[in-house]
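Can anyone check this?
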Amino acid sequence: MKKAWVFVLACLCVSAASAADFKFFVGSSISTYSNRWPSLQTYAYESSGLNPFKNYKAAVTFGFGFTFPIYKSLSIEADVHYANGGADFKMWYVSSGTDGYEEYHDLRGVSLPVLIKAAFLPRPFPYILAGVDITYIINHRRQGFLLYQYGADEQWVGGLVEDFDPSTSKWNFGPILGLGLDFPLKRGAFFIEGRYSLGLTNLYQGAGGAEVMTRALYIIAGYRVGASK
């Protein structure tokens, strides 16, 4: 599987030689899991569902990409970016003697979104992005925290970091939708995009039949070379 991933990236780089545009970008990601990852602790929690802002983790993302024109207002965009995702579940049990419990998930990978870009109206109207997002997961870690001395001296105490790689799928797949704005410059364009990625792969590969999928919102800004027309 790793050889297949390297082959895909190599093909992308070779094809990029004839691309009309090259771009690079940086931004922030807000990600979560649709459900809590299975655990020995039986604390209650709220399911995130489709909402990336519930039980979310905020992080930085960055990458580069290429644009291949198709016809007039349509083009294909292929990107490679660092996907720093995960989730953060907080649970409160003051009456039980444990003031709070938190599970912080760190899910890191390399994402390869392939998108159709449609600019039906001229600038400054936004363009539409739609496609698929394929992510190779590098590692998955979880750390638990306890909050004690509630009210007087609140302190989070971190526990042992757990390695969840054996119970985590190495690949994630799902649709991605977005909107963007181009601002023409002399030799290219500055752009801002918002993207929502909906993971359809059940990441949990352990026992028990649990289902955990990813939800992510990306806000990115970058520079597109050769996009001034």
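Reply from J.R.: I decoded it. The chain has a mean pLDDT of 84.
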